[in-house]
Amino acid sequence: KNRLVVDLSADYRFSSPKVYEEWYGVKHTDHERLYKAVYGLPEINREEIKGVDIIANPGCYATAAILSVYPLHKEELLDGLVYVDAKSGISGAGKKLSAEYLFMNRNENLTPYSVNAHRHMGEITDFLSSELGDRFAGLMFCPHLLPVERGILSSTYARLKRSLTDEELREIYFDYYENEGFVNICPEGVFPQLSDVNHTNMCSIGLKSAGDSVIAISAIDNLIKGASGQAVQNMNIALKFKENEGLV
Amino acid sequence: KNRLVVDLSADYRFSSPKVYEEWYGVKHTDHERLYKAVYGLPEINREEIKGVDIIANPGCYATAAILSVYPLHKEELLDGLVYVDAKSGISGAGKKLSAEYLFMNRNENLTPYSVNAHRHMGEITDFLSSELGDRFAGLMFCPHLLPVERGILSSTYARLKRSLTDEELREIYFDYYENEGFVNICPEGVFPQLSDVNHTNMCSIGLKSAGDSVIAISAIDNLIKGASGQAVQNMNIALKFKENEGLV
Amino acid sequence: KNRLVVDLSADYRFSSPKVYEEWYGVKHTDHERLYKAVYGLPEINREEIKGVDIIANPGCYATAAILSVYPLHKEELLDGLVYVDAKSGISGAGKKLSAEYLFMNRNENLTPYSVNAHRHMGEITDFLSSELGDRFAGLMFCPHLLPVERGILSSTYARLKRSLTDEELREIYFDYYENEGFVNICPEGVFPQLSDVNHTNMCSIGLKSAGDSVIAISAIDNLIKGASGQAVQNMNIALKFKENEGLV
Amino acid sequence: KNRLVVDLSADYRFSSPKVYEEWYGVKHTDHERLYKAVYGLPEINREEIKGVDIIANPGCYATAAILSVYPLHKEELLDGLVYVDAKSGISGAGKKLSAEYLFMNRNENLTPYSVNAHRHMGEITDFLSSELGDRFAGLMFCPHLLPVERGILSSTYARLKRSLTDEELREIYFDYYENEGFVNICPEGVFPQLSDVNHTNMCSIGLKSAGDSVIAISAIDNLIKGASGQAVQNMNIALKFKENEGLV
């Protein structure tokens, strides 16, 4: 009976059956576990993960986007909608047999899809709202299919309630993530690329401010920090193993 | 003496030697022609192009970004900074022998570069300001190297002074570009991809509104509409040939 | 009634219904036209093509392989089986919705398929035998799927009845192809690559001898010289247009 | 003083300074160690590797080619030159800053190079001759640059002194490699592809006979079985660790 489930589906990621049903278009039939499950983003929810027995492993885009914007969100610095422009390798779609995933349609191409309608947009909104309620204004979200196997680069553009220097901006992120083994804040003027994080559980974040606005670019491997690696990280925390056991 | 020059370099693209020197870091030594040259974006400057003898052919990123945002800019609907997230094939860098352009560093990768510091950012700002002066608030600009040979996808996120429905938004773009043979405004819910425009002189634009914000995604072939094709289009106009002669 | 058909299917490529049926596994139902049709390889069959009204446009692999080995074959220099190692871009399979053509299964991969069993092997054998009968010993044929869109590189390894120097070898090919606008024989020590021929109707051939053996490497664009370009070339010849009209 | 060196360079791979100098064009200055070193191909030289203190780790192409042809060679079934058509990912060239390795020159391309002149051809010849002397007739060797990061597919075409059925052919390979953990002989009709072996220390071999001839296709990861993985395998053997320690 001391079973731990780390669920990689979306079934337990939402705060209520209602929100799940809005984005997935099907009835949620397991309300009890939905309310009990913890959203498994260790850098934010580590304490709740300890000892829980159902962990909803976050979506890949959601992981990249939330980690890149969370410090500004939590500090209530965001002014209005944030804009997330995300690009993913094709393994994000698994090996689904659909014309859009043929080599001939992906190679030498870049394709926006589900513009402002992707299900992970619901997941990001639901999670960020669960902390600030209406004080989170929401986001526009535009994912793209990149002609690579793996990796997500997610760029968040946002207006702030007050201007920050590059140094102040990075300071805020350092405060949030200073003890995190799987988050890297890049030095000034440096930004992450897919090859920095692929085949690892790292999330690397680069930051730039300009006037009242910022750009925060995060990179993860969608198959590791965006899926199975984060699941192992969650398992390690829940079962009190070393958090980085089996991970790089 | 009836010579026409269509210049593909950046030398005559700016409104003054001063702005050129800020972005290129070298002295401008031909002020007279700089002031005489016309910025060769036919969809906006067609009348000025007719009869001129020096045309400054626009940069590839600048072409994609300006066309995607111009109607909102001209209508003075933009509220604050606009955010341009642009992705380019590697031919944008020519065949420069530099480690960052090696197959081993580009394949299976996506790399932001010159974040908020790329020279085309100066070109876009200078051109848009030349019409509205300080009423253009500026932009944040983040270009990326895509692992493909050719093509630019440029996504502009912007806040507006008033909310627009998707229909109103597309109506504005239709008004500006309705007689343009090389601009396509996508139907509602459709967005351009590189394969729609590569090997053509087309710029295809997809639009989405949400609350007070919009996203405008444009795609061009950086080697055609972003370079030699637009040069031919400019030549055709200046010499009173059919504008699409030799172009598809 | 003066109709010309250039057929891109395999239906009229074989010398008899029997051979067709062996390789395609279906009954041939139009024997009359099969016997009347000419195999449309202009560099070999130009005279027969003039004035015919059904041309069987050759297969892409067959075009590359036959052109690369024909002079040695015709001179009866080949000793025993020849070995053809061919690599094709994925457009060779069209846009068939099959798991093997998914980006995730092609990218970063190279896959031999239909080893010594591909239908073009029958086509090559049938055509070469039609000239020399049993004096053509046959071939082993191994095609591969390359992770590119277009282009075929076909390498033929063969033992000869007498040793040739590199110069003698190239001399033989020059003799056969000296007036051919769409065949290029590379200088000594130079071998073709896909980028030399893609987007053109050219077949480029590089040669090397060693002891009693040779390697002949040919490159074509499977969509042009291997398909529609050769069809246009055939049409031009049959209708007495300039042979290179519309082709590069 | 009980030091073990596994050398990944070519310095100790040859049987004599003379042969080394022919292929590398520089004086060999360490004859003593050259004669002492063992060629580290465990599937063939396992006993010599045990206890030696200098192991010359084989070249990537040489590993793939030798393993694919060794049983036929050792059984003295080969009749005349063998033909090796090898294709390698670009990591084989490291990250050398040369125009031929630029993304723009590799992407959507396939390029034969060093045709019948590559240094690994010398290595293969030297090693195979060291067993049979003049009874090994030699090879033609044609390597190609594939537009992928890693992996080698090497196809050997050969004429035999007597015809073999597919079953007899595979039987011979099974006999040689039956206890080998890092060699896989594919079932009849199955041939290896890069994705079967990449990121592993495996060499997978597919076989086909036709008349008096055979094709043997082998696949390895050039960075693992073709380099560091084989080095670890050699170290494990020399130091009497489990041979697959640290390897997959």
Write the layout of secondary structure elements.
Four copies of one chain form a homotetramer.
Chain A lengths: L4 E3 L9 H8 L6 H6 L1 E2 L2 H8 L4 E3 L3 H15 L7 E7 L14 H4 L4 E2 L6 H14 L6 E7 L6 E8 L6 H12 L5 E3 L8 H4 L5 E8 L2 E8 L3 H15 L10
Parallel strand pairs in A: 1-3, 2-3, 4-6, 8-9
Antiparallel strand pairs in A: 4-7, 5-6, 7-10, 9-10
Please give the share of residues in helix of chain A: 25-40%
Most extensive interface, residues per chain? A-B, 44 and 44 residues
Distance between the termini of chain A: 31 Å
Gyration radius of chain A, to the nearest Å? 18 Å
| Number of E-type strands of chain A | 10
Low-confidence stretches of chain A: none
Average pLDDT rating of chain A: 96
Q: How would the global form of chain A be characterised?
A: globular
Oligomer: homotetramer
Largest sheet of chain A: 7 strands, mixed
Count of runs of 4 or more consecutive helical residues of chain A: 9
Adjacency order of strands in the biggest sheet of chain A: 5-6-4-7-10-9-8
What is the SS-derived class of chain A?
alpha/beta
Topology pattern of chain A, helix = H, strand = E: EHHEHEHEHEHEEHEHEEH
- What proportion of the residues of chain A form beta strands (DSSP E)? 15-25%
